[in-house]
Amino acid sequence: MSLKYAVLAALLEGEASGYELSKVFDVSLANFWASTPQQLYRELERLAQDGLIEARVVRQERRPDKRMFTLTEAGRRDLDAFAATPPRRPTAIRDELLIKIQAMDGVDPDATRALVEERGAWSRGKLARYRRVRERLLAGRTEAEYLRETDRVGPYLTLMGGIGFEEENLRWCERVLTVLRQRAPLG
After folding, report:
1. Is the pTM of this model over 0.70?
2. From edge to edge, which strands make up the β-sheet containing 16-17?
3. Residues 33 and 11: beta-carbon distance below 8 Å
4. Could you give all domains of the chain from N- to C-terminal order, each with its CATH number?
5. Structural Rg of the chain based on CA atoms
6. Strands (E) located in 39-136
7. Residues 30, 23: Cα–Cα separation, whole Å
8. β partners of residue 86
9. Distance of alpha carbon 79 from alpha carbon 68, whole angstroms
10. Model confidence over 89-114: pLDDT tens digits?
11. Per its UniProt entry, which superkingdom is the organism in (predicted)?
């Protein structure tokens, strides 16, 4: 999948500047699709050239003008067609840490532990951010109330996927650390 559809999906929430979209990627989409600001701005240009989004310039005093982007009808049709099409292939894990764990035998166990602990800390941080987003979305409602009342359920469901992913990362990190502690006397 290209960044194209992640950007189009982000614009379902309404008009946004490139800066605002980069924040959406950091908070709402980071649990399933990562992008750098540079990639995002290049993609916005392509999408505008292809007629899938429109850009308008907003003049600002004491600040550079900003461009605001909206989804066009053609963009919505393209996104709808994409959403209705089965994925080309299942998700595959590509994780540098897993390669390092695969090759860890013969490496200082403390170095391996440090890598796993760092991953756990990263996952705890992301999980805390995702849970704050969840609380903001729920705004005091129960999950059932939110799901019944909201216009768009997709962002909540993808957020729940991100939460589950980070919870599983933490379980895996704890399991690896337990195995490494149990093996310590063997080394």
Report:
1. yes
2. 16-17, 66-71, 53-58
3. no
4. 3-84 (1.10.10.10), 96-186 (no CATH)
5. 21
6. 53-58, 66-71
7. 10
8. none
9. 19
10. 877 788 889 999 988 888 888 999 99
11. Bacteria
